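anyone seen this seq b4? input:
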Amino acid sequence: MVLFLSIGCSKYACTQDVYQIKQSNEQKYVLGGASLLLLSAYQREKTNPPNLDFIQALSSDNIPTFDRGATLNLSTKADHYSDIGIYASLCLPASLYLLPKVNKKQATILWGEAVILTAGATLLCKYIVRRPRPYMYNPSVMPTEKMKRHGLTSFFSGHTSLTAVNSFYAAKVFNDHYPEKPIKYLVWTLAAAWPAFTGYMRVKSGNHFRSDVMTGYAVGAAFGILIPHLHKNKEVSSAWNVSGSADGICLSYDLSR
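predicted toks r here
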């Protein structure tokens, strides 16, 4: 019996998609995200805007020392930069459509699932916790600006969570399709830095505490990485492939994995 060792990209491994899409599984993810959004809408309707008595009773002494400094921040420029951060982050997953190895339909489905789950979890948490934003403690902000439901949605940062899910999803998908490319380290660095910048701007603007953006960062990164990971095609997860014939056995190894 002859043993052939073929080092390179096996035909079987190269013709398989990196991710596996099953309608029953995708329905669960989408239903889960939609349920979170519906629950958050219900909680939002139950949330009353803060009145003057509530605002006057707020004291920064009740805020953990780690977060207290944010109550002194107020910047419309930083607020504007944070908006740029979240909208510009859409370019990262969108750029995946330019890559020849990426299955466009699969990328759309997985991206949608990651975003809907992140948005649902973020909004639901905001309207359950109802944490006053830092500017609610700032005496330079007019009371009329504080008497809005928006002022009770500090925890956790939606700008940061959505920027993180876009960034880390893009990095994860790129890494799964091009694990051999050294540029993947730059992609991961960009994915980590982008939501960090957005979160920093949210704190500087007076809209969020540090703990808000740290939690949003973690939640968005988790969904961005986990959704593609849970869809990995196990049939091509191994770099080793064995095939047999009348002439012997062919053992091949894919160096790109």
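Strands lie at 2-7, 240-245, 248-253. Residues 1-15 have pLDDT under 50 and may be disordered. kinda curious what u guys think
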